[in-house]
Amino acid sequence: MLERLTSLVSRLFSIAAGAALVLMMALTCLDAILRDINMPLVGINESVTYLGALVLGFSLPMTQRRGGQVGVELLSRKLTGRPAEALAVLVSLVSLILCAVTAWQCWAYAGELKASGEVSMNLGLPVHLVTQAIAVSFGALCLVILNQMVAAIGRLAAK
User: Fold this and answer.
1) What angle do helix axes 127-158 and 81-116 make, rounded to 10 degrees?
2) What pLDDT digit, counting tens, does each position of 43-83 carry?
3) What's the angle, vertex CA 53, arms to CA 147 and CA 126, rounded to 5?
4) By CB neighbour count within 10 A (0-12 exposed, 13-18 middle, 19+ buried), where does 147 fall?
């Protein structure tokens, strides 16, 4: 059940990241075309910056699920069997804690931004929405890490 939920959530965030990337490219191309006829888009830098943040944030769950992140494996390559699985559980636990704290702090910061009424300079977009979206994506990343940790614990118990 946890595996299916993790798969669904990762896929949804991956689709959202792809949509944000396509929108970012479309806006950039449109702005380049419109600049040629002296009609640049207002707030394009803000839009591309926010979309870039969403692309990065939303791609985290699927990247973790597929093991696409950069890792230092000097120790884990030399380990096999129970020690390797124990290390996987430990790394998952530390990662889960760090990502959960990051999600919590992003959410808290978004609350501060919302309370202050902070908006973007050119378009007047509420800044807290992007920060909340990043917090939710870190929550989804926590779900993926939890699923991987449960699997590692199962492998450890089986050995």
Assistant:
1) 160
2) 899 999 999 999 999 999 999 898 776 666 666 677 677 87
3) 110
4) buried
Contacts of 68 (CB under 8 A, 6+ apart): 62
Pair 82, 159: CB distance under 8 Å: yes
* Gap between the Cα atoms of 153 and 86, Å rounded: 8
> Which residue do the tokens 């990662």 mark?
95
Q: Please report how the helices 44-66 and 127-158 are oriented relative to each other, as an axis angle in degrees rounded to 10.
A: 10
Task: Read off the DSSP letter of residue 126.
Answer: B
Question: Beta partners for 119?
Answer: 126
Beta-strand ranges (E) seen in the chain are none
Predicted model pTM: 0.86
The H or E element containing residue 55 is helix 44-66
Report the sign of the C-alpha dihedral through residues 94, 136, 103, 67, in that order: positive
Residue with tokens 């999600």: 103
Each residue of 107-155: pLDDT tens digit? 999 999 999 999 988 888 999 999 999 999 999 999 999 999 999 888 8
